[in-house]
Amino acid sequence: MYERGLQALQRRDFAASADALRAVIERYPDERELLERARLYLKVCERELEPKEPAPKTADEWVYAATVALNAGDEANALLNAQRALTADARHDHAHYMLAVVSTRRGDAAAAVEHLRRAVALNPENRSIARQDPELDTLRDAPAFKAALDTPPAEGAMARPQAAAAARAWRPKPRR
Q1: How many angstroms separate the Cα of 123 from the Cα of each of 55, 71, 127, 131, 167?
Q2: Interacting residues of 112 by C-beta distance below 8 A, sequence separation 6+
Q3: Which fold has domain 59-169?
Q4: pTM of the model
Q5: What CA–CA distances, in Å, run from 151 to 106, 147, 157, 175?
Q6: 156, pLDDT greater than 60
Q7: Residue 97 to residue 111: CA distance in whole angstroms
Q8: All residues at 6 or more sequence positions from 129 whose CB lies less than 8 Å from its CB, including other chains
Q9: pLDDT in tens, 75-103
Q10: Domain locations along the chain
Q11: CA–CA separation, 83 vs 100, rounded Å?
Q12: What is the pLDDT of residues 124-154, one digit of tens each?
C-alpha cells in the first residue's frame, strides 16, 4: 500500500497517492517510521491538490497582483507585475501610479515622478490621491513632484523634460 502511494506520487497522481497514504496511516498506527514518512508524503500530495490561483491575464489583474506583492513587502514582484500591466495596457493609469509608488520605495525619484506624471495625465483623479498618499511622502519636497501634480494635463506633456531633469537632481528624504 505504501509503495502504491509512492508510485502514484512519482506519476504525479496526487489524489491516488493521498488515498493510499491515508490507508497506510489508518492501518499501521503503531509503525512510527512508516507513519512519519507517509504523513510527509501525504502533506506533499495535499499541497499539490490545493487549488492554485490562476496567473493574471488582464492589466487590472496584473495591477492587483502588484498591489498584493507591494503590501507583502515584495517590491521586486510588485515592479514586475506593474510592468506586465503596462505591457497589457500602456495607458493603465493605476499601473503607472503603482510604478510611481514602487519607484519611490526603491529611491528612484526620476522614475517615480515620470510614472506619477503619466498617471495624472491619464486620470486627473490621481492628482488628489497622490497629494494624500503617504507612500509618496519622500517626494513631497521635490520640485518635479509638485510640477507633476500642479501642471494641468494639457501642459503635462510639455513640462515632462523639465520635471524629469528636476527629479534626477533631487534626492528623496530617507524613509522613517
Answers
A1: 27, 23, 8, 14, 21
A2: 99, 100, 101, 103, 104, 136, 139, 167
A3: 1.25.40
A4: 0.60
A5: 25, 6, 9, 26
A6: no
A7: 11
A8: 97
A9: 999 999 999 999 999 999 999 999 999 99
A10: 2-49, 59-169
A11: 11
A12: 999 999 999 999 999 999 999 999 988 665 4
